[in-house]
């Protein structure tokens, strides 16, 4: 298990220059926004506008903070809020967004179609313990609250915007507890 603390995330401009993104993890490690195989990031959206185009990329978006967004993908509108399930779409489709009421922060997961696919699951913990089962490398991103991860050497505490990665060698299950909203991100090689 590797912990990616919020203080270690990399801040950079959007591909289209319209805002700032926080890169949490990218593969390969030396990749850029133009040649990654997969990427996890957050972004603050402060105004309506077009999304950056990423050719041959699939994308999933979830709203972490704010009053939501109306996403238009090739003319089909979908309203997303903090309680919505993650929304998947082609990152090379014509995509724009309108804010419902003020700035939002979102979580973005992207994979290059020829290399990887991904699944994103929203998890809500209300002072209970849950077991996460996985067979591929996964990431656990904490949107809000605190999560305690139980492992053989003890426990690890994740705070808001922290992320834990689990390698394929750890496949099986892990116990998590706390009061939090989190996202389990699973990457599969094609």
UniProtKB/TrEMBL annotation:
It comes from the Bacteria. InterPro entries: RmlC-like_jellyroll, RmlC_Cupin_sf, Uncharacterised_HutD/Ves. This is HutD family protein. It comes from Paenochrobactrum gallinarii.
